[in-house]
Amino acid sequence: MVETKKRVFNPRIETRLTKDDTIRLDKAAKIAGKSRSDFSRQALLWFLDNQEKLEHDKRESEVAQAIRYATDQIVRAINAGVERICKMLARQGRAIGTLYELSYMALPDDESREAFVEAGKLAEQKMRRHVEKDESLLAASFKKVVTANDNPQA
Questions:
Q1: What is the pTM of this model?
Q2: No. of H helices and E strands in the chain?
Q3: Are the beta carbons of 39 and 32 closer than 8 angstroms?
Q4: Tell me: the pLDDT tens digits for 70-114?
Q5: Can you give the pLDDT at residue 153?
Q6: Distance between CA 103 and CA 98 in Å, rounded?
Q7: Which of 77-81, 100-104, 129-133, 148-152 comes out lowest in average pLDDT?
Q8: At what angle do helices 110-150 and 36-106 cross, to 10 degrees?
Q9: What is the four-CA torsion angle of 43, 48, 51, 53, rounded to 10 degrees?
Q10: For the segment 8-62, what is each residue's pLDDT rounded down to a tens digit?
Q11: Residue 12 lies in a domain
Q12: Which residues constitute the domain of residue 126?
């Protein structure tokens, strides 16, 4: 009895390339040590195998761009708020300085002015301690955030 060979379905696929693309294909195939046909087949199969990942990567890239844009907008808004607060604080500082000068000038004698200056120095020392304490607490809270982000299991 004669065994018949089963035919394998291998349809021929054709495409057209520009002259420059054909030259690039030939160079790449030569570097890979393959024929133009084998190289094209391998490239097409790789693309088909990886098409879903490529689409996923494209979507991921679009999401990353949207997140980057939103983050930039938030940073701009925060910076604008910080700038506004700084301007308000500068205006308050000028107003307080004016009140300080007016109060100082209204004092009747040198002894009162000297006591006023000493009271101002004492108030400045107290404010400095409060600011240093606030800065320490803020630095500690930032350190916790940074440490938590560096070590997510902690």
A1: 0.44
A2: 3, 0
A3: yes
A4: 999 999 999 999 999 999 999 999 999 999 999 999 999 999 999
A5: 59
A6: 9
A7: 148-152
A8: 160
A9: -90
A10: 777 888 889 999 999 999 999 999 999 999 999 999 998 888 888 888 888 888 8
A11: no
A12: 110-144
- What does the block give as tokens for 110? 């040198």
In a domain, 137, yes or no: yes
Question: Is 123 part of a structural domain of the chain?
Answer: yes
Residue length of the chain: 154
* Burial of residue 65, with CB atoms counted within 10 A of its CB: 0-12 exposed, 13-18 middle, 19 or more buried: exposed
The reply to whether 115 falls in a domain is yes
Domain count, the chain: 1
Q: What residue type is 70 in one-letter code?
A: A
Q: For residues 39 and 29, is the Cβ–Cβ distance under 8 A? A: yes
Angstrom distance (rounded) from CA 13 to CA 22: 16
**What is the C-alpha separation between 102 and 35, in angstroms, rounded?**
93
